[in-house]
Every structure is written in C-alpha cells, then in structure tokens.
Design brief:
Blueprint: H1 2-5, H2 9-14, H3 25-36, E1 43-44, H4 52-63, E2 67-68
Parallel strand pairs: 1-2
C-alpha cells in the first residue's frame, strides 16, 4: 500500500545497501505494455477511459514517433 510505505521509499531508506529499484504498479504496467508493442509499429489505437497511465503511455509513444489515435 503506497500510503503505508510511501511507494517503496521506506524500503530504500531503511535498506540502502540493497541497491534495488522500486517500481510502482502503474510504472510496471506501463513498462510491460510498451515492451509488448512491436518496434516497427507506426500507429496505435487506444480505447477505454482516459487515465494517467493511458496518457503517459500515449505521450511516450508519440515521443517515439508512433501515431496514437
């Protein structure tokens, strides 16, 4: 729960020697989605309700030259 551990920062502060990356659920979801899109894709059609995650994915794809509709 992010409210309990500050999105993982609690663990990083308490155990700095572990040198691990803490990935939030939305960040991990976005990474998985972007990894699954083939490199040669030129257009993507996004459906569903608008969300922070969806907008972040759309912006990233636009920056990479993918047309988002």
């Amino acid at each position: 729960n992010e409210a309990l551990n500050g999105g993982g920062t609690l663990f990083v502060k308490r155990l700095p020697h572990l040198r691990v990356r803490v990935v939030h659920g939305n960040t991990l979801t976005a990474a998985v989605i972007l990894h699954e899109i083939p490199k040669d894709v030129k257009e993507v059609f996004l459906t569903g309700a608008t969300s922070k995650l969806g907008r972040a994915i759309a912006l990233y794809l636009c920056r990479k030259g993918v047309r988002v509709m």
